[in-house]
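Standup notes
- DV: blocked on the single-chain target, sequence here:
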Amino acid sequence: MITVDSFFSGTLNTVDAVIGNFVNTAYQHFIQANAGVITLLFTLYVMLLGYQFLFHGHHFNLSSITRHMVVMLCVYGLVMNWNLYNMLVYKVFTTEPGNIAEILVNAAGKSQSGESIAQALDAIYAAVINAAMGFFGQMSFSAAGIAFIVYGSLVFIIGSLMCVFALLLFIYAKMMMAVALALGPIFILFILWDATKNLFSAWLNKLITIALIPIVTSAILVLMLSVIHVTLPSMNQPLDQMQFYGIAPFLGLALATTMVLSQVFRICSALGGGITLASISSGAAITKSVLQASGISAASRGAGRWLLNKARQYRGRK
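- DV (later): unblocked, structure below
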């Protein structure tokens, strides 16, 4: 339930519940509506692998067949099994950014252990409201009272703008992640063919970019949380000593935080946009080098030639 004291955490928890059900429902409906077509695609894929091995064996050896079969089985499992997709894709891109954000919050040293970024955002907003109410509580029909109205209004407007902007970034990231994950089975299938691999790469780039949004936003808010604990004491001065410079550090840093939050999209695009399918598959090149050095690759090529010769002898007898 969303309350005033837990507006930000309640809103984010509600969004999490809605998008989790949306992704699961979209996945199940996609599989139910296209199970026959997906099975046919994998059958044709296996037939093409067999054809290339039989008639182009000098370019398409057993190691290539094995690599393609492993990729095909992984894709089939992710597309046809929700539990596997949920564990390896959905939770990685939805839960892990939150875990990293929680580590950042705890690293600030100003929050309770296990506090989420939504709870930290509640704490920032509560500090802003308390500071603003403190100023409004000291207003009177005098020049100093009018000054306190101005101080409280500035603290409330700039602090609330910062918190709401951060909340909108989190909601945007969660909703866009839900849409991208709901379309995941389609884009995962694209990795099987060279002509469509770029579509899978673009989808993966988008997932990584969206996953970075809550992490970068959390890092910025954690810095602001530390700043609040430094600047708020200077705002709690006696009435006869309060001057504008007492709240100036808080207002300046809150405004700077809002401006930095407006650049989160660019930061995440720059960090996540450089991921390509070629760089991800660099691990395959390392594995290939290890297999060649160990002699396993040569043994597989020998087994492939033996199977190819047997297949040719069988065709010759027929």
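- Follow-up: The radius of gyration is 28 Å.
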